[in-house]
Recover the amino acids of this structure.
């Protein structure tokens, strides 16, 4: 069996930070269950969402991602009992950085994704990409240049 | 270009990837990357033949990094790290890129998009590998000694099994006598063994063994040191302090039975008892069912007391699992004592899972009557004219109210976490939302905690029946034995590292680190932070705290993540 060759459009570019121990497994399960989500969604796994540097998020948006989604462990985190608060702080800092740089803070989202949260993950991706499609392109990024050329 | 010599293997996974991704196009695109000097497509990258090909390529082309684009890293990271080692390559200069679960299987209707994404993910893998560095696992000695905290059924079984493996055991019990909850119980399901008898059997085994030391009225109050060689301090009830050096810690502190508040389903009225109290009553009067000298002719059991609560903010939303089976079993015991005793079971759902379904059937055949109540309309227990009255709206009778006048009401109470704050504090044990100790993963690593060398077994981790507690206990023993008996352990080197030239010692990283893994050290004229690689858990909580970006995780450095982001958005060529 071979998949259709025609691209249905990759949609907005979304960078997902997942966690090695929990949320990456939930994202894996979405694929194992053949739950489709836009191929513009790409994942970088890290050990824990509390360790995400807000500056990585600013860098991602400036480089060309339309949005960044942190798939956190939430209260299930095995490292930190206050991981939710710490990850929330990372998101707050990232949103402030975006504001300072004239970027829409709604380009950053987070939610707890457990190791079997395949459907919630796909639902988040569909909603987030839809919301991002309604935002103007970030000036200077490849998608903005392409939009300008069109 | 960084001047590295990186090899890339793109796996077809027998069609699982190549049916949805043009793997040859991925290989051709990645071959154009500056640092890539070797690229191949394999039908199964994990097969022996493909691994041999990769090893030959690493050796012949003197590769200093390898990227395998295949399935989830959860499946084959260990496989390919071992392959790299066999080829003479540092295993931390290998990167696995997930183009199956997170690409081909997720975009089955978009071959073009999935192929573009695979190329981007592969580029990010190459970018990360180009900035990788050889890391060495730190080998530390492990002592063949363990401390087991709690001498209930799980702790006793763990001590005997560890002793059998050749691990010396310090078995520590806070109470004045060993045996925990089970020692107080009579006949237990599924095979009618008596709780006290089970405990005595294990205690005899403990006493026979020279390599088990039992400490009663003693608590573990301090822990320091590292995996394989912890310094542990015990304190007895008299205040005597006992220092120990152990390789691992097994926590088997069990549970507390839920204690209903006065008035909850009539608790406090004469004739209303909890399930553990009823078990003790039966154990004390095995020949005739009496309560305070009165014959008991009718018993009403009210299920799910202190379990499966739905009120907002309730900490007991979980099912305690053992109580349905225990109560069905108790009903068969009562039936055996006197078949003429009437037994009414007021339940929400019966969860006699697995083979325990047979107990439910046996109770039914013995004449037990089961009445289902709804969560919105729980039964009431009151006193009238010196007798108990239970009213319940039976769901099978379309909510019709049924009145029972029992001699005894048994509240089927669940399990709650023990109040163990000093132990939690001493061990820095992770606790879940339900208050029980938290494992790394409920299915994949059920007895391990994020604290290397500290294991949680039995009902300390969550509600369990005796058989499940013992199974969990033996799982903890297997993990402890595997850790200690080799004599050494290699620690994962993916921990935090400080770049001392960037560090201005502001103390933010020490405040962010929950494990006390960052020390303040002097470097020349200045003071800087330094990471203790044994204590660091590698979660990276310190990373966003550092205003100078002086601290980062090995394998997830600022430079690596930035370069991965750039690679992902790089225009396709």
């Amino acid at each position: 069996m071979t998949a259709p060759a025609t691209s249905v459009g990759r949609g907005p570019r979304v960078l997902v930070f997942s966690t090695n121990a929990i949320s990456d497994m939930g994202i894996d399960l979405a694929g194992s269950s053949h739950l489709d989500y836009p191929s513009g969604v790409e994942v970088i796994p890290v050990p824990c969402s509390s360790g995400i540097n807000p500056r990585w998020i600013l860098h991602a948006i400036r480089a060309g991602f339309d949005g960044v989604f942190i798939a956190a462990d939430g209260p299930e985190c095995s490292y930190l009992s206050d991981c939710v608060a710490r990850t929330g702080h990372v998101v707050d800092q990232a949103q402030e950085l975006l504001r300072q740089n004239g970027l829409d803070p709604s380009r950053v989202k987070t939610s707890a994704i457990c190791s079997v949260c395949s459907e919630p993950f796909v639902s988040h991706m569909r909603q987030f990409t839809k919301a991002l499609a309604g935002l103007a392109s970030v000036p200077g990024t490849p998608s903005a240049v392409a939009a300008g050329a069109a | 270009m960084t001047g590295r010599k990186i090899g890339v293997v793109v796996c077809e996974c027998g069609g699982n990837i190549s049916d949805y991704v043009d793997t040859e196009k991925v290989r051709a695109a990645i071959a154009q990357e500056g640092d890539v000097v070797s690229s191949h497509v394999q039908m199964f990258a994990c097969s022996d033949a493909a691994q041999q090909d990769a090893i030959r390529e690493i050796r012949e082309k003197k590769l200093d990094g390898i990227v395998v684009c295949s399935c989830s890293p959860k499946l084959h990271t260990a496989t390919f790290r071992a392959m790299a080692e066999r080829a003479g390559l540092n295993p931390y200069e290998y990167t696995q890129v997930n183009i199956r679960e997170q690409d081909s299987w997720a975009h089955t209707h978009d071959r073009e998009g999935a192929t573009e994404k695979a190329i981007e993910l592969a580029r990010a893998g190459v970018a990360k590998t180009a900035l990788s560095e050889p890391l060495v696992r730190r080998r530390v000695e492990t002592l063949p000694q363990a401390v087991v905290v709690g001498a209930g059924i799980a702790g006793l079984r763990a001590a005997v099994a560890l002793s059998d493996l050749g691990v010396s055991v310090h078995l520590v019990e806070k109470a004045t006598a060993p045996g925990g909850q089970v020692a107080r119980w009579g006949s237990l399901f599924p095979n009618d063994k008596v709780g006290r008898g089970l405990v005595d059997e294990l205690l005899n085994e403990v006493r026979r063994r020279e390599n088990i030391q039992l400490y009663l009225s003693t608590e573990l109050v301090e822990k320091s040191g590292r995996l394989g060689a912890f310094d542990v301090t015990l304190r007895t009830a008299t205040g005597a302090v006992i220092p120990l050096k152990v390789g691992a810690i097994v926590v088997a502190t069990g549970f507390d039975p839920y204690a209903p508040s006065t008035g909850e389903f009539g608790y406090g009225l004469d004739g209303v008892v909890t399930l553990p109290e009823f078990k003790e009553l039966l154990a004390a009067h095995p020949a005739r069912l009496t309560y305070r000298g009165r014959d008991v002719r009718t018993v009403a059991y009210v299920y799910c007391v202190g379990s499966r609560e739905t009120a907002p903010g309730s900490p007991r939303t979980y099912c305690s699992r053992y109580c349905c089976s225990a109560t069905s079993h108790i009903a068969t015991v009562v039936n055996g004592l006197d078949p003429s005793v009437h037994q009414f079971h007021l339940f929400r759902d019966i969860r006699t899972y697995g083979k325990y379904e047979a107990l439910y059937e046996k109770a039914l055949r013995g004449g037990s009557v089961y009445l289902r109540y709804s969560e919105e309309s729980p039964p009431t227990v009151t006193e009238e004219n010196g007798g108990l009255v239970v009213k319940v709206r039976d769901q099978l009778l379309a909510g019709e109210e049924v009145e029972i006048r029992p001699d005894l009401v048994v509240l089927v109470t669940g399990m709650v976490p023990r109040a163990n704050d000093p132990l939690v504090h001493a061990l820095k044990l992770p606790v879940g939302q339900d208050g029980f100790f938290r494992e790394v993963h409920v299915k994949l690593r059920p007895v391990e905690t994020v604290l290397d060398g500290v294991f949680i077994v039995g009902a300390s981790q969550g509600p369990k029946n005796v058989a499940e507690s013992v199974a969990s206990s033996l799982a903890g023993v297997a993990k402890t034995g595997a850790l200690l008996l080799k004599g050494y352990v290699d620690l994962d080197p993916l921990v935090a590292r400080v770049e001392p030239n960037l560090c201005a010692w502001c103390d933010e990283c020490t405040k962010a680190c929950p494990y006390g893994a960052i020390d303040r050290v002097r470097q020349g004229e200045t003071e800087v932070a330094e990471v203790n690689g044994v204590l660091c858990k590698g979660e990276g909580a310190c990373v966003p705290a550092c205003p100078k970006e002086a601290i980062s995780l090995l394998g997830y450095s600022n430079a690596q993540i930035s370069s991965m982001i750039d690679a992902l958005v790089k225009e396709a060529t």
Q: What stands out?
A: Chain B touches chain A through 59 residues (CB under 8 Å). Chain B has four domains: 6-137, 145-254+418-489, 258-412, 496-553.
